[in-house]
Amino acid sequence: MRIPIIAGNWKLYKTVAEGRELVTGLLAGLGAVTDREVVVCPPYTALFPLGELLANTPIALGAQEVFSETQGAFTGAVAPQMLRDVGCTYVIVGHSERRQFFGDTDATVNRKLHAALAGGLRPIMCVGESKPQRDSGQAEPIVTAQVRGGLVNVSAEQLLNVVIAYEPIWAIGTGDTATAADAQAMHAAIRATLVELYGDEAAQTVRIQYGGSVKPDNVDELMSQPDIDGALVGGASLKADSFLRIIHFQ
Question: Strands 230-233 and 5-9: what pairing?
Answer without folding.
Answer: parallel
